[in-house]
């Protein structure tokens, strides 16, 4: 993420008379990015069938997107630091749109993976800069709300992206769904071009300078938990449809279950912020990983014994799964900023890369475990959640220092 203060210093003259209106265009872009990141899980089985591969192989497209985002984000931030902000946002959204349309036209899994890497690169260029620009184009008393609007695009995508993808995939096809994401991205690009003011780029910062914060002991102690925790919840996430089908959830109810997961994610994110302020990040993380462990263990037991009847318990487990998954980020960001308060934008950016590293790792583990069945895959996720729980306890002393 760019240093928001630097961006603001360069553009104070543009923000004096602007309201929140333009930030909603930026939020449309973050909605497209978030939907693009999560939507594939909604139609993974159909994608696999269309490309004549197994769902496990098709999940490599999810891994490729997440891994590319994690690796490319700091590199792209370095390369593009001096480019004018409006130009960068427009080009990033246009490339995201074209990459999604190319994904929709992909004849083979290999081609699909290449286009997903391209989409990840565009997403990595857009998302951090959208927040920085939102803060720069509004008066100082509106900056927090402007950031909330832009982040809200990702939050809405978390809640609605997968169920909307499921609806689109069942009513149209997975290819049409990706085209739709591409069109949204292109519309957002036109909106940014039409509405956003011209903003200069930032001073050049080397990649070495961006990564130097990793030398801080506190950062290196805290950051691995982001990867580990996201790997735990994402080990089964890409295969949520298979999990629900194994639980004998009906096809119409699957969409509702995906929506419940998303709403749980939104609630977990909000409660994590509130709980971190009130009780501290360690308490929130301990609760989140305990809940994740119990949820994934419960799902594993139910898929293994068919001991569940009805949908209420499944819905409850899906909500807790979503909440525990997305409760991690606010608490982890709080710990990282406390470890390096003068490099807050850099550690938040590193945490974002850690999130996508975790998604890539979890999806790869889930793909491997799926060969032994959905139940085994859920046990893998549960075991990783236990490891994350223990890691929190082992590193809690550092936070108290």
Compact description:
It is built from 18 helices and no strands. It is mainly α and 401 residues long.
User: Any idea what the shape is?
Assistant: globular
Largest sheet: none
How many individual domains? Answer: 2
State the helical fraction: over 70%
The total of helices stands at: 18
Can you characterise this structure?
The chain is mainly α and 401 residues long. The chain has two domains: 1-205, MFS general substrate transporter like domains (Growth Hormone, Chain: A), CATH 1.20.1250.20; 209-401, MFS general substrate transporter like domains (Growth Hormone, Chain: A), CATH 1.20.1250.20. The chain is 82% helix and 0% strand. The protein is built from 18 helices and no strands. It has helices at 4-15, 21-38, 44-50, 55-58, 60-79, 85-104, 109-136, 143-171, 174-195, 207-211, 217-237, 240-246, 251-279, 281-305, 312-326, 328-339, 344-370, 374-400. Helix 12 packs across helix 13 (251-279) and helix 13 (251-279) crosses helix 15 (312-326). It starts with a helix and ends with a helix. Residues 1-17 have low confidence and may be disordered.
